[in-house]
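Handout, section B. The chain below has 166 residues.
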Amino acid sequence: MKPISGKAWLFGDDVDTDVIIPAKFCGTLDSKELGRHAMAGLDEGFASKIVPGDIIVAGDNFGCGSSRETAPLALQGAGIGAVIASSFARIFFRNAINVGLPIVEAKGAAANCNDGDLFKIDFGAGVVTNATAGLSYQAAPFPPEIGQIIVAGGLVPYVRRRLGMT
């Protein structure tokens, strides 16, 4: 996976899927439509502030709550380039990989972050850098297969390529 960089949007601990994409907006699987309402449970205008490639930085247990696949789809549709968190709820972690949303666990990144900080992620090396603050965090690099799934755009496109269906 290629390294990415983007402006940070800071969130705290226990950000659940109900605030990532409230149930009233989950009547579609269209990521662009879902993206118009990303994080609406915390900030109705969040999606209009995003510049494609921006990065969410959060504390512990990001994506807890229900098993909505629409949560990572909404973040993608809004233009979020990646999510960095101290930890992820397991179902959100898997759903994010399945839809091709890059996610990274980096302890402490949220504690030393402000909205607007420039973050860089080197997925291969497992290094997350807050360039604004001059701080780096070690994160476990993705196994090659997981990186391939994300680069392919998610599990379904990855499997289609592997089976020669594209």
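Note. The first strand starts at residue 4 and ends at 10. Compare this with the example in section A.
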